[in-house]
């Protein structure tokens, strides 16, 4: 028997994660995919011609309006930032009211939001736990509504390319934390889309009302460095950093009102406390996802960097 999920509505389809999920949903060729966006949005999702419909709602994200827009959808995937937790709570409630079978909240990210230290450091993780909790409440009150959270670790290909992982392709230099020996799960953008498809198409029952952890691989910083040196044919310069000292400095900056420090906090937490492979809810095997090849992914990122006219410096 096939999955009861046929119609899928994606919210945030033009964003980094959303566009990757959209590509995999469309590539699966088994879903009728709609995109929900604010009426004031000027963003245009990729592959518009393959999207069944674009649903527009007012910027207020009113629960009643959202619910009406979602009637007839089997699944709703939220892939927009948790900057306003109220919008995500209203979207979940609207999905439940509309008779949606499965809701996937915007829990994709570097850290497990249930980590007490992560919650202490940043409101973001308290908000994500609030969304998880509310999804649980909605499921308990409904005979049909259910949810699945997918936690993916750092967005490896995007974050490596942009230097967020502290490997700087422009200068062939790296900042190595705590000796570079901690393993951290991370996922390519494509892997996130693959996981969403697997949940909705193949494993709806097994993933019901659960938080699951996925990865493309879980390398150490030392292993990433070795892959980069191989891909660039260069010896990289390294600077070693104590993560406790770094984290405390960023927490002080954030408390002083520097919003940029939150990204630094997320980076550290997603680097030193994010090895999903030992968790009971590690779901790669359940979802039929094999680890990707680190060397191949790193080589692809380096090649993309070179195509952009950013060749590494000569020795």
From TrEMBL:
The keyword NADP applies. Pfam families: NmrA. The keyword NADP applies. It comes from the Eukaryota. Gene3D superfamilies: NAD(P)-binding Rossmann-like Domain (3.40.50.720), UDP-galactose 4-epimerase, domain 1 (3.90.25.10). Keywords: NADP, Oxidoreductase. Residues 7-274 form the NmrA-like domain. One of its GO terms (molecular function) is oxidoreductase activity. InterPro entries: NAD(P)-bd_dom_sf, NmrA-like, NmrA/Isoflavone_reductase-like. This is NmrA-like domain-containing protein. It comes from Purpureocillium takamizusanense.
């Amino acid at each position: 028997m096939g999955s009861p999920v046929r119609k899928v509505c994606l919210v945030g389809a033009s964003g980094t994660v959303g566009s990757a999920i959209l590509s995999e949903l469309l590539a699966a060729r088994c879903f009728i995919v709609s995109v929900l966006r604010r009426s004031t949005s000027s963003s245009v999702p990729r592959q518009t011609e393959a999207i069944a419909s674009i649903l527009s709602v007012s910027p207020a994200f009113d629960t009643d309006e959202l619910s009406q827009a979602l009637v007839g959808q089997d699944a709703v995937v939220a892939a927009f930032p948790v900057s306003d937790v109220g919008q995500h709570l209203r979207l979940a409630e609207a999905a439940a009211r509309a008779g949606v079978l499965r809701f996937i909240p915007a829990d994709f990210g570097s850290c497990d939001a249930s980590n007490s230290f992560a919650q202490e450091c940043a409101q973001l993780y308290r908000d994500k736990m609030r969304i998880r909790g509310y999804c649980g409440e909605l499921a308990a009150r409904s005979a049909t509504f259910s949810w699945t959270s997918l936690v993916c670790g750092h967005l490896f290909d995007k974050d490596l390319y942009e230097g967020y992982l502290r490997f700087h392709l422009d200068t062939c230099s790296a900042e190595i934390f705590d000796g570079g020996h901690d393993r951290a799960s991370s996922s390519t953008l494509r892997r996130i889309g693959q996981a969403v498809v697997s949940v909705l198409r193949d494993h709806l029952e097994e993933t019901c009302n659960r938080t699951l952890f996925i990865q493309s691989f879980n390398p150490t910083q030392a292993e990433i460095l070795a892959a980069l040196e191989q891909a660039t044919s260069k010896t990289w310069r390294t600077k070693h950093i104590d993560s406790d000292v770094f984290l405390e400095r960023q927490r002080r900056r954030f408390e002083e009102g520097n919003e940029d420090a939150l990204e630094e906090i997320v980076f550290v937490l997603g680097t030193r406390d994010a090895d999903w492979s030992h968790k009971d809810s590690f779901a790669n095997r359940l979802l039929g996802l094999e680890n990707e090849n680190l060397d191949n992914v790193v080589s692809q990122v380096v090649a993309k960097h070179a195509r952009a006219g950013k060749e590494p410096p000569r020795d």
